[in-house]
């Protein structure tokens, strides 16, 4: 059984936003992938197929209820849910780029761009919550003290060639 990845204390809306963009963006990307396949250009046909495949992977991970009649999707969804946020971010971003590179049309950029956005949202979730104002001030003061110490050490140094 897969163990859950440690979740950082994130706002509820951020988790649902990433899931919503993944599910909605995957459905839109799948439709635009079909639209992209109706062309003469071979690279755009391949890009449309890639976009549909990437959209299926994202939908099956984010909303397994959409693919409940496919046997392995439930296991795959549980496995992906157990992964850290940054791994989901990398997966979604890497999946979205080849279609845009192969056929940089409006339908490909918009469809794969939504998958890319889902990856960016998971990346932001992996970074975690921003520090408090007091923590930021303390970090800035420590950085200033270290820089002033370095400056005084360098100012008092003698030249190497005498």
From the spread of the alpha carbons, the general shape counts as: extended
Q: Give the beta-strand count.
A: 0
| Biggest pleated-sheet summary | none
Question: Approximately how much beta-strand content do the residues carry?
Answer: under 5%
Average pLDDT score: 82
Number of discrete helical segments: 6
* Quaternary assembly: single chain
SSE string, helices as H and strands as E = HHHHHH
* Rg for CA atoms: 23 Å
Distance between the termini: 69 Å
Low-confidence stretches: none
The structure class reads mainly alpha
Q: How many domains would you count in the coordinates?
A: 1
Report the helical percentage: over 70%
Protein name: Calcium channel flower
Main location: membrane
Transmembrane segments: 21-43, 49-73, 85-102
Subcellular location: Cytoplasmic vesicle, Secretory vesicle, Synaptic vesicle membrane; Presynaptic cell membrane
What's a concise summary of this model?
The chain is mainly alpha-helical and 162 residues long. Helices cover 73% and strands 0% of the residues.
Explain what this protein looks like in three dimensions.
With 162 residues, this protein is mainly alpha-helical. The chain has one domain (12-153). Helix content is 73%, strand content 0%. The longest helix is centred in the N-terminal third of the chain and has 26 residues, at 12-37. The chain is extended, with a radius of gyration of 23 Å. The N and C termini lie far apart (69 Å). InterPro entries: TVP18/Ca-channel_flower. Homomultimer. Associates with the dally/ magu complex. Pfam families: Cg6151-P (PF10233).
């Amino acid at each position: 059984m897969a163990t859950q990845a440690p979740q950082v204390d994130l706002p509820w809306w951020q988790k649902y936003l990433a899931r919503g963009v993944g599910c909605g963006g995957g459905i839109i990307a799948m439709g635009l992938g079909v639209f992209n396949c109706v062309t003469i250009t071979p690279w755009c046909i391949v890009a449309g197929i890639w976009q549909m495949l990437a959209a299926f992977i994202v939908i099956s991970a984010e909303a397994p209820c959409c693919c409940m009649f496919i046997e392995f999707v439930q296991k795959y969804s549980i496995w992906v849910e157990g992964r850290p946020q940054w791994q989901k971010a990398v997966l979604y971003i890497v999946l979205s780029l080849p279609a845009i590179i192969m056929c940089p049309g409006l339908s490909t950029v918009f469809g794969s761009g939504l998958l890319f956005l889902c990856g960016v949202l998971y990346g932001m979730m992996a970074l975690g919550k921003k520090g408090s104002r007091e923590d930021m001030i303390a970090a800035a003061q420590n950085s200033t003290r270290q820089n002033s110490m370095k400056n005084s050490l360098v100012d008092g140094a003698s030249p190497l060639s005498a």
